[in-house]
């Protein structure tokens, strides 16, 4: 356990940030799974709608530092590729 006041404060801050980061990461995963589930069902309209809702969430998590920008681009690219495969 930390003895110095600044170390105690850092421990408190880290705990708060960990909870927020886990919450944001969970939201991100949920949005991605909604798109994936719609694609698996073969419902293109639902998949497109879910994708349009997921993209801003993915971008927001990138700006918050939850995920790297390349990972965000990879998520968006792969989801879009799956949606496009539904038509052809």
What does this structure look like?
With 88 residues, the protein is mostly helical. Helices cover 86% and strands 0% of the residues. It has one domain: Ribosomal protein S20 (Methane Monooxygenase Hydroxylase, Chain G, domain 1). The chain contains 3 helices and no strands. The longest helix is centred in the N-terminal third of the chain and has 37 residues, at 5-41. The N and C termini lie far apart (59 Å). The mean pLDDT is 95.
List the helices and strands and how they pair.
Elements: H1 5-41, H2 44-63, H3 69-87
Helix pairs in contact: 1-2, 1-3, 2-3
Summary?
With 88 residues, the chain is an all-alpha fold. The chain has one domain (5-87): Methane Monooxygenase Hydroxylase, Chain G, domain 1 (Up-down Bundle).
Q: Could you tell me the strand content as a percent range?
A: under 5%
Query: Could you state the CATH homologous superfamily?
Result: Ribosomal protein S20
Q: Identify the CATH architecture.
A: Up-down Bundle
Helix-residue proportion: over 70%
Q: Note the total helix count.
A: 3
Q: Structural class of the secondary structure composition?
A: mainly alpha
Number of strands: 0
Sheet with most strands: none
How widely separated are the two ends? 59 Å
Shape summary:
elongated
| H-E string | HHH
CATH hierarchy class name = Mainly Alpha
- Unreliable spans are none
What CATH calls the topology is: Methane Monooxygenase Hydroxylase, Chain G, domain 1
Total domain count: 1
Mean pLDDT: 95
Radius of gyration: 18 Å
């Amino acid at each position: 356990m930390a003895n110095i006041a600044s170390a105690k404060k850092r421990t408190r801050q880290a705990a708060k940030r960990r909870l927020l980061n886990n919450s944001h990461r969970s939201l991100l995963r949920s949005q991605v799974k909604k798109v994936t589930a719609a694609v698996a069902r073969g419902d293109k309209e639902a998949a497109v709608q879910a994708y349009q809702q997921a993209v801003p969430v993915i971008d927001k998590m990138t700006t918050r530092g939850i995920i790297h920008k390349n990972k965000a681009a990879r998520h968006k690219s792969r989801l879009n590729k799956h949606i496009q495969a539904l038509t052809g």
